[in-house]
Description:
Layout: H1 13-33, H2 37-49, E1 59-60, E2 63-64, H3 69-87, H4 99-121, H5 135-161, H6 175-194, H7 197-227, H8 240-265
Antiparallel strand pairs: 1-2
Amino acid sequence: MQQATPSSITYSRPLIYSVLAVALGILGAWTLLTPPGLTGKADAVGYAICHRIEVRSFIAGTYQLPLCARCTGIYLGAMAGLGVYLASRRERAGRLPNWRVSLVLAAFVGVLAVDGLNSYFTLFPGYEGVYEPQNWLRLTTGVFTGIALITLVLPIFNQSVWADGGAAVAPLTSLQELAGLCVIGGLTIALVLVQRATLLLVLGLISSLGVVVVLTMIMTVGFLTTSGRFRTYTRWKDLWLPLLAGLTLAIAMIGTIDALRFSVMGTWEGFPLP
């Protein structure tokens, strides 16, 4: 990398060519080796992070969504939260929420953990659980956990990217703002529970995209840290190379898990129930 100035970031040609070559190789290989079509790629993303058990997933017509009900909720919640932060011009928010908001967000994650454990133990013969697991409940706990996830990841991303550490504001600054975002989360849940095939398909694809977006943000932070560009940038347009590297690393991770799982399972279907 060449020397950066506060207003401009330049990259050496060897670095640009190296990142482009690796990106082309990894993204190309993943595209060619995973199931065809947009839904096939979405399934491959879900295959890397989710059990994809059919009875624990929503079905759009005859198509099982790429992620189970809980994971669908998590990444729809993350995308809904990110959309709200972009619309409210908080995309550079560099501070974590205050303790009151953080406590509520932690409670969202705690409720998901309780519901997840209850659901998990019902897989064992003879155990019925404290209550009967339901996909609508998996979805609901997932959406609110997804809101918590993006509210944590976004400030960490901004603190790592921007020279000034990001804007001196949190994505959520008050319980009132959190309540408003929860309304958006509730509407997202309602859209899924309508269970119209076309709408479910779109939402399923968005949730799969959410996986890639969140992982790209995390991997971009890793790339910046290891390449010596931590807290260097001032303009979005200069961030194209780290974001491409982050996307490449995200797909590399997804593809590696895909390959390992497929080598064991021999199928792109979800885990079979006992």
